[in-house]
Amino acid sequence: MKSLSLLRAHDWWAPKIIPMLCIGYATILQNKDNLMDNFLWLLFLILAVSVGAIYVSIINDFTDLKYDIASKKRNGLQRFAPIKRKLFLLASILLGVFFSIFFINDTLSLIFYLAAYLAFSLYSIPPFRFKNRGALGVIADASGAHLFPSLFVASSMMNNMNVPIDPYWLTIIGVWSFFYGLRGILWHQFWDRENDLSINHKTFATEMSVSNMKLAEIIITSIEIIALLLILLTLGILPFIALLFYFLILFGYLKLKIKTILIITNTNSWQIFMSDYYQILLPTSLIITCSIKDPICLTLFVFHLLCFPYTTKSFLKTLLRMIRLKK
């Protein structure tokens, strides 16, 4: 269990993996193919992306260790001897090499897959360490965490379905995932800002005042939503209905006195804008859309419940609180 904790899956499992599943579902829908016929390959892609996320967790802890010790911040590798730390890092690299072999005959997908590793290596590893180089850091993280993995999933799904690569689809997926990723890393850096300032650890957030981010977070979120709408236009009416339902839920959060944030938080009770939509409502709407042609797709709800129980449970508990408040 001690070894598993260093994977930091609680940080990335639902926020990263569910949107990747949605990209797979959407790519299948957009090409009018059958979801269940392609689901096993999508699961394999999710496993490949998860291996990349494990590498990211380990390389981050490996290169951040001295900073985390200085700021008294938890680091998953701190409990292990130096030789074990190196073995964990080596194992994560070898796993990435192993999965890369499966995409030798799919050059575009392989490029996207390896680009994610490169982006995070540049983010973490000296002398590059883009993490300490302002905007380069947030660009590298957003690219490695969301942009390249999203393009990898979309590209590989199209290759698996034997359909031509659609540049427009990859473009809107890329824009959406990149700006979603920007919000994620900026939230993380500003959340850690005080710790980083206390040890003079330079990041984009430590060089930028919170007040100067107000306009930036609106612009970043606006581009993300525009790209999302362009994606949804190809997927039928249900994802739009789910989006409208989500905006009704936002009023419920107001009633519960939970602030909805774009990036910056200055309160103890908050939730990140669009997280419920991306992790619950969007996959639900896509699965139902697919099930209209093939009802067996409804069994994927069981898959989501088993793989993401906390996300589902938390959302349903919040909905119940909103309903009780209205009574």
Summarize the structure.
By secondary structure, the protein is mainly alpha-helical. The protein has helices spanning 2-5, 9-30, 35-70, 82-100, 107-124, 135-160, 167-191, 193-198, 204-207, 213-232, 238-255, 275-293, 300-307, 309-326, and strands at residues 259-261, 270-272.
Describe this structure in words.
With 327 residues, the protein is mainly alpha-helical. The chain has 14 helices and 2 strands. The chain has helices at 2-5, 9-30, 35-70, 82-100, 107-124, 135-160, 167-191, 193-198, 204-207, 213-232, 238-255, 275-293, 300-307, 309-326, and strands at 259-261, 270-272. It has a two-stranded parallel ribbon. The longest helix is centred in the first third of the chain and has 36 residues, at 35-70. The model has no long low-confidence stretch (mean pLDDT 90).
Strand tally:
2
Shape assignment? globular
Mean pLDDT score:
90
How would you characterize the largest beta sheet?
2 strands, parallel
**Multimeric state of these chains?**
single chain
Please state the CA-atom Rg, rounded to the nearest Å.
20 Å
Give unreliable regions as ranges: none
Which strands sit side by side, in order, in the main sheet?
1-2
The SS-based structural class is mainly alpha
Helix content: over 70%
What share of the residues does DSSP label as strand, in percent? under 5%
Helix/strand order: HHHHHHHHHHHEEHHH
Q: Figure out the total of helices.
A: 14
- Alpha carbon gap, first and last residue: 44 Å
